[in-house]
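Trying the structure run again after the queue cleared.
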Amino acid sequence: MLTKEKGIAVSEGIGIAKVYKLTEPDLSFDDVPAENVANELQRLDDALQKATQELDQMKATAENNLDKEELAIFDAHRMMLSDPEFQSQMTDEITNQKVVAERAVSDVTSQFEATFAAMTDNPYMQERANDVKDIARHLLSWLEGKPLPNIDEINEPSVVVAKELSPSDLSHLNKKMVRGIVTEKGGKTSHVAIMARNLEIPTILGMASITDDTSSRQNIIVDAFGNKVILDPDSNTRQLYQQQSTNYLESKASWREAKGLPAVSKDGTTFSVNANIGNVDDSKLAATQGADGVGLFRSEFLYMGSDHLPTEDEQFEAYRSVLKTMDGKPVTVRTLDIGGDKSLSYFDLPTEANPFLGDRAIRISLQHPEIFRTQLRALIRASAYGPLAIMFPMISTLDELQRAKKVFYECRDQLRKEYADPHLGDDVKLGLMIEIPSAALNADKLAQEADFFSIGTNDLLQYLFAADRGNESVSYLYQPFNPVFLQLVKTIIEGAHRHGTKVAMCGEMAGERLALPLLMGMGLDELSMTATSVPRVKSMVRKYKVADCRKLVKDVLTKYSRDSEVQKYVDGWLK
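Done. Tokens:
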């Protein structure tokens, strides 16, 4: 029996099965001069067409498993395959250098991949390197007549083990048979991690040398609670984990029952458990999962899913649809949050050495008031259809918040005249994302200007520890349970509550099992998370007393100094 513990658990649960080792075919080729240039051009064209058809088929298969945001990966790959520049470079190399199609594909994709990989200051663009690598695999597999491994072929309970997986790999897996996923590469905020969570498959990424340490059909246990993998478990270990898995599945059944119930602690404190969404379809899922509202509508996806800046009417229709879907439950919309790792093809952002520290989010909105006003006008008009809150991202200073509010009030006054409605926008709440340390430390002052806060833990963590959350080499600094970070969260909540300002959390931490009792004990008012996590969190809230959670917070902050120590202590407390 061998236990490995050096990975990153990204989707909780217990997986017990045999190893299904995802082995890549040998896509090497005979690097010889082209005997017939016309024939090589035709082979390339055939491969491009087949790869495109394959993408369309995968997307169609994946539509039942993935949401709109995740399905967009196929559109991005399709666009690259049909890009004239991409195609012309390959055809030019075949024509001018008389090489086989495989050599042209390999050379051109390697150039594109290296260009993207070198963009270390822009994680969004750097991620495109993996997209190019995936496209090269598919093209070479067609040229060489060597099919890529297909997870959909798994016909018995299995744990997929691989060096890495692409979103296209996950898109067509057999969810009934895949009991777990373990890879050598990948991080907590990668596309694969997000997809695994939505598919509810126990997953650990970044597990070094796992492919060397395993063989096909070997017995394996994936413990995505304890963040470890056990190879060749003995009968006692297997029985223990089987019981844990059974208990977990029974718990999931009880969570489904709790989704229609209010999230009230044992000693009577009510919490709002909301969903994070990116589009209208997501709001429908939020409603069916029993969410108390939408805690984060990522409005940038309206922009990223368009080939132009969405008009006021286009945005209005989207916001109105979400409000109507939520049927009287509150909806919080984050204003345009681009820059950093998010870009728009039709809107040029400046090239910056440190885009996460540069022109992004509210900074862009304030510098481009015509874009900001269009969005605010659409939101104010939509507020007639349900309770709406507007949240400004990336606020660093009190002045930024005041400037953003000033634009809102100017838009509201103008719309009241246009629609002859003196009460339009009366009930809209205005708040901000707390994701920058300067804002966190100034919570007391900002609370006097805001109706609510929402803590964005992903960015707040990376800024606090100066560690890019998309960089695997510093992923160990993603430490949401570090007492320094927990103390900062507590300070934010206390500063807001002194002025009657409510505090929500919409980052990754809000849906964490170990984080919930700590957040309850700190006095957090609202939690917002992936819609599928809502029933679980509601059920958990109903099991605890806030008084006990407060004592837990005090113990953690006075006794421990390391993230791992806190996690171990809270895990024991929960058990």
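The chain has a mean pLDDT of 90. Worth checking whether this holds up in the mutant runs.
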